[in-house]
TrEMBL record:
Primary location recorded for the protein, binned into one broad class: membrane
Any one GO CC term of the record: membrane
Record's keyword annotation contains Calcium: no
Domain of life: Eukaryota
Name of the protein in question: MYADM protein
InterPro entries registered for this protein in UniProt: Marvel (IPR008253), MYADM-like (IPR047123)
Keyword NAD: no
Species of origin: Thinocorus orbignyianus
Location(s), subcellular: Membrane
Keywords from the UniProt entry: Membrane, Repeat, Transmembrane, Transmembrane helix
Membrane topology: Multi-pass membrane protein
MARVEL domain mapped to chain residues: 5-136, 141-277
A family per Pfam: MARVEL
Transmembrane portions of the chain: 12-32, 38-62, 74-96, 108-126, 147-165, 177-198, 210-231, 251-271
Length: 278
């Protein structure tokens, strides 16, 4: 038994994340008000993060993780980053969609669940900070800044896909969707190959290839950042009323998420260039 799995700072952060995520989904389950699309997403996030974090702690506690055919440090780094992003999104989505103004039913449970979700995000963020690679250390790629950014880029692309609706009739919008899809697939493959220890079998200078891909993805996202709002907002005003299912709001959300990923790919390119050439 490896007691450091629960007594180290990383282990303590994981235990806090387990307790807080369990508290969040238990309180929301007690209200019975989670059967909407957003409520289902929130419950899935808390339950998924709870289950995987518990599994991680058990595997480290019993020292079984070396038997797995994966890069354990890359897996835990990628998961902690993903969990932080998912719980952060849930901490924003749940109160904005489930707690009315004024609140009508189960107000105390919903408020405590929201607070627990926010604290759970801080626990995962703490784990990301504790496991992030130090400058010059590239033994675990997904714990470096470029590696963590790749998890961020994939997650933001998933959010973009969830907001896409009618784009099939406009070639410019079709190009934007192609940009989101191509960059999502390639970045996801990089993450999967890294965790599966498959990158070493690629017969080319891998580090330079990743820099080249980051530069290409940045250029593609620059075009999407210009084309998407041009076709969706040119000579168009926001309808009134416009709720959460309004196409105009979804297009605005895709615009901001595109900008976020553009910034992420820019920072990714800067850090990757420094790691490889400097």
């Amino acid at each position: 038994v490896n007691l450091r799995a629960v007594t180290s700072w990383v282990g303590i952060a994981r235990l806090l994340a387990i307790v807080l995520s369990c508290l969040a989904f238990s309180l929301v389950a007690s209200t019975g008000e989670y059967k909407t699309t957003y409520g289902t997403w929130c419950m899935f996030t808390w339950c998924f993060c709870f289950a995987v974090t518990l599994l991680v702690i058990l595997l480290e506690l019993l020292e079984l993780y070396p038997k797995l055919p994966i890069s354990w440090d890359d897996f835990t780094s990628a998961f902690s980053m993903l969990a932080a992003l998912m719980v952060f999104t849930t901490s924003v989505v749940y109160p904005s969609t489930s707690i009315g103004s004024p609140c009508s039913t189960h107000c105390a449970q919903k408020a405590v669940a929201t607070t627990a979700s926010c604290l759970c995000f801080l626990a995962y963020a703490l784990e990301v900070g504790l496991t992030r690679a130090k400058p010059g250390d590239i033994s675990s790629f997904l714990s470096t800044v470029p590696g963590l950014l790749k998890v961020f880029e994939v997650y933001v692309a998933c959010l973009i896909f969830s907001l896409l609706d009618n784009f099939s009739s406009v070639p410019g919008l079709q190009w934007c969707v192609a940009v989101y899809s191509i960059c999502f697939i390639i970045t996801l493959l990089i993450i999967i190959f890294t965790i599966g220890r498959c990158l070493a079998y690629i017969p080319c200078p891998l580090e330079k290839m990743l820099v080249g891909y980051s530069a290409l993805a940045l250029v593609m996202y620059i075009t999407a950042t210009v084309i998407w709002p041009y076709y969706n907002f040119s000579n168009k005003t926001r309808p009134n009323p416009c709720n959460s299912d309004c196409a105009w709001n979804k297009h605005l959300g895709v615009t901001f998420l595109t900008i976020f990923n553009l910034i992420a790919y820019l920072v990714d390119l800067i850090y990757s260039t420094r790691m490889v050439f400097i």
